[in-house]
Design brief:
single chain, mainly alpha, two-stranded antiparallel sheet, 10 helices, globular
Length: 197
């Protein structure tokens, strides 16, 4: 959960949804922002609901199991995808009952060591407006995806990702431990690495 929050917070900073560069301060602002409808005008209302998403995770997974049945739902733990990419990918193909002979090259393209912040927040907000995004997709077709990616890079400053202080990490681990334990029961999987300090 903590890695997810850090990643999501970084994405919000990059895309202009988040204005608070300190994750812990952003978490402290969550209730106030949610009550005020913080990002609704930019179509990203959920961006400020960090804790809500973490605390709601067990119910979300359980809902999938209830609707489709546990035998029709494949839960992939990101740690497995990171540490044993090919094996996890092959396992997914087997679950989907599709050809397992073709395994792609799993080269890392999106390092999490740094993230970007918009050079011009007003322009980043405009670029992530759904109507503007649809127009850009029409003007720059699929073959021009490199141009869109280049434009994103041009509008973004690279910034080192914030490292959480040990006390802050311990606070979040304590808060999210009951959530992870509930998730463990639902997916029948040891996730204790997620709540060990």
């Amino acid at each position: 959960p903590i890695g997810f929050l850090q990643s999501w917070h970084s994405l919000g900073l990059r895309d202009g949804y988040e204005s608070e560069p300190d994750l812990m301060l952003a978490l402290d602002l969550e209730d106030e922002r949610t009550a005020a409808g913080g990002a609704e005008n930019r179509g990203a209302a959920v961006s400020y609901r960090y804790r809500h998403v973490i605390h709601n995770a067990p119910r979300s997974v359980q809902r999938w199991y209830d609707v489709f049945g546990p035998d029709k739902v494949k839960v992939i733990v990101f740690d497995d995808l990171s540490d044993r990419t090919e094996e996890t990918y092959r396992d997914l193909l087997e679950f989907l009952e599709v050809d397992t002979d073709s395994i792609p090259d799993f080269e890392v393209h999106n390092s999490a060591k740094a993230f970007g912040t918009p050079k011009a927040k007003w322009l980043a907000g405009l670029m992530h407006n759904p109507k503007v995004a649809r127009t850009v997709r029409r003007v720059l077709p699929e073959r021009a995806l490199g141009m869109r990616s280049g434009l994103q890079k041009l509008l973004t400053n690279r910034v080192e990702r914030q490292v959480l202080a040990p006390d802050d990490r311990a606070t979040l681990v304590k808060e999210f431990t009951p959530v992870v334990k509930e998730l463990e029961q639902i997916v029948d999987r040891d996730l204790s690495d997620w709540y060990r300090t």
